[in-house]
Amino acid sequence: MADTQYILPNDIGVSSLDCREAFRLLLPTERLYAHHLSRAAWYGGLAVLLQTSPEAPYIYALLSRLFRAQDPDQLRQHALAEGLTEEEYQAFLVYTAGVYSNMGNYKSFGDTKFVPNLPKEKLERVILGSKAAEQHPEEVRGLWQTCGELMFSLESRLRHLGLGKEGITTYFSGNCTMEDAKLAQDFLDSQNLSAYNTRLFKEVGQDGKPCYEVRLASVLSTEPILDSEMNSKLKSYEFQGSNFRVTRGDYAPILQKVVEHLEKAKAYAATSHQEQMLAQYIESFTHGSIEAHKKGSRFWIQDKGPIVESYIGFIESYRDPFGSRGEFEGFVAMVNKAMSAKFEWLVASAEQLLKELPWPPAFEKDKFLTPDFTSLDVLTFAGSGIPAGINIPNYDDLRQTEGFKNVSLGNVLAVAYATQREKLTFLEEEDKDLYIRWKGPSFDVQVGLHELLGHGSGKLFVQDEKGAFNFDQETVINPETGEQIQSWYRSGETWDSKFSTIASSYEECRAESVGLYLCLNPQVLGIFGFEGADAEDVVYVNWLNMVRAGLLALEFYTPEASSWRQVLKSTGDVAGGRALYEGYAAVTDAPPECFLSLRDTVLLRKEARKLIVQPNTRLKGSEVQLLEYEASAAGLIRSFSERFPEDGPELEEILTQLATADARFWKCPSETPSGQA
Ligand SMILES: [Zn+2]
């Protein structure tokens, strides 16, 4: 059996992304816009296979063929007949679901490889005896021969992503080192080219001189088309004694499909910003221009508060070992109109509700300012993983001049907290049912209060540069001491500058505390539609969840203080504030809590990162349908089997052809070649 570090456990948590209500409340054109953007995202997400490992596209093609011919239940019958145990078949389902979720055979969080947790010979029997192999014997056998060995190999260099001897990557040919990466970056900088949509391939010429190909992602390759911006850059260069050649056309057939659906989405754009944004993205993916993507991102930032939000392109550079090449991602998220109506009601009631907080009115701002907070429900997130929030674009120059968007992804957050009953740790049996029933609703109340009234409450006492105070020194009394205010912020001082290292977590604790306190208020509970016994359950589960979250957070050594007083923030009393914070935040083995010992238990019972099942959208006439799948590895596989109903086999063909065309770049001379690649 493989080292558990390199397998996904059979009982891995699987949750479905719930976006039903948000989708239901969209208008027909909004649904069409969301549908075509989703199609573009899913197609583009396939590029991640080519950005991960040499074998990932073949593994994807093989698994897709297998499960297209037989669904997980049908294949199960066959697998058991071939002598697999239930556990071994489940391990195969989990592996497949893992490959789909990570878009490759390396974990998107941690970058380590994962392999199927069953004997290779048994998997081979299942594959070669499957319906898919019966229908297309040569193709299936060929795919298995190409990727079977690598699928299972835990040779040390293959265990994680990295450059050269350090690991595996397909952002660079296998013979590239960190020196090559640095040289290439200097070259790109000298030509004012961005690395975001590139890969680097090195070949050594007959004269022994290295020649580097910088390949841009685009639909077009060498076609003589008049697009002056990019055309002038597609040529050979001498740079510091090396040859560089800038080419384009990486992932061309995949990006072609992305562009087709962006064109269709454009017809349903709600604003001219969206239209211009999509036109620029189309330009970017067609010609390989990051400048066009930046222009598109500028329109995107200007498209404030859309009902259907999206972003698409070569975005995050975490998985490039050099850290400058972007992995493809595309997402579509929606305003949940019902939830945002509740949040608006909360904001409208703010001035009244803030009076309920346990500090004097003088500690509140004269007029309530609504914090910048957007929560959306994800419909589609294609790429190697789904974050719980986004803060983009990543282009530093745009962030400086145009700003950025900071969005919390509500239904992803809900998944992160949802746990199956069997895995619900540290709760009494009778609490588990309540917890499962009320976790979602109480979380909505807590998020609304935390974000809007938590971060939105409180006032900083300031003395401006002219010496004037924004509070009445005579009458405002510190309720902690019963005396007048002794400390405040001077001009130029801020919460962050005074409380520095603890400022942001302290502020989060404060917002959580406001949420816990105000969730007891019947008016608040009424806004969210709860009264009577239900309201009491919401309050109880909100508290219970906070306690459990604090316990689980011991994993990170920063237990959450669930109590905080506004006074120390208003007065800028750093010494008092730090003492309070450190008192609550200390992790020691002192009784009665014995946090350090508890932490060991928490670590032992830690749950592996969950897999998330996403829905599909399907066009029926002019209507868009939402197709949902069960929260299991089999459900996740079904969602992928139905993801590309028109062109699944064609896509698998495209992916393996693209991988095969570059296969020579990952052949190490020392390795014996295996299979056809
Ligand atoms: Zn917060």
3D structure, described in words:
Its EC number is 3.4.14.4. This is Dipeptidyl peptidase 3. Belongs to the peptidase M49 family. Its main location: cytoplasm. One of its GO terms (cellular component) is cytoplasm. The chain is of the alpha/beta class and 677 residues long. Helices cover 47% and strands 13% of the residues. It contains 27 helices and 17 strands. Strands 6-7-8-10-9 form a five-stranded mixed β-sheet. The chain has a four-stranded mixed β-sheet with strand order 2-3-5-4, covered by helices on one side. It has a two-stranded parallel ribbon with strand order 1-15. Helix 13 packs antiparallel against helix 14. The site of zinc ion has 4 residues, from helix 20.
Q: Low-confidence stretches at least 5 residues in length (pLDDT < 50)?
A: 558-565, 669-677
Q: Please, what is the average pLDDT?
A: 91
Radius of gyration: 28 Å
Structural class: alpha/beta
Shape: globular
The total strand number stands at 17
In terms of DSSP E residues, the strand content is 5-15%
Strand arrangement in the largest pleated sheet: 6-7-8-10-9
Query: Fraction of residues in helices?
Result: 40-55%
Quaternary structure: single chain
Distance N terminus to C terminus?
28 Å
Largest sheet: 5 strands, mixed
What's the total helix number?
27
Q: Tell me which ligands are bound.
A: zinc ion
Enzyme class: hydrolase
Pfam family, one: Peptidase_M49
Subcellular location: Cytoplasm
Catalytic activity: Release of an N-terminal dipeptide from a peptide comprising four or more residues, with broad specificity. Also acts on dipeptidyl 2-naphthylamides
